[in-house]
What does this fold into?
Amino acid sequence: SASAVRPPMPPRRLPPPSPLTPPQPPVPAATLCRDNNEYLQQGLDCDAVYDTVCAQAVDTFPGLDADFDIGALLANCPEACSDGEPVCLPPPPAPSPPSPPLS
It folds into this structure.
C-alpha cells in the first residue's frame, strides 16, 4: 500500500480589502465623545435620559428590567446623562519634571 505524498497546498490568497470601507477601530466603552444616536436599550435612547442621572436610570424609569446595562447607557449617552463624561481625546501624558542639575 503505497501512500501517495500530497503536494503542499498553495497558500490561499485573501481578497484585497475594499478601499471603500476602511476598517473602523473598535470604540472602547466609555470613550464616546458625543451621544450615540443609534443607541436604544429597552426603549430608552439618549434623548429620553437627557439631563437625568443615568446611574439611577432603573429607578428613574420604572419600565426598565433589573438587567438594564447602565454602563452601556453612560458610554453611549455621555452628553445626555448628567453624570456622563464625554471622552473626546486621550488625556495628554503628564510632562516629566525636569531632572535636577547634577552638582
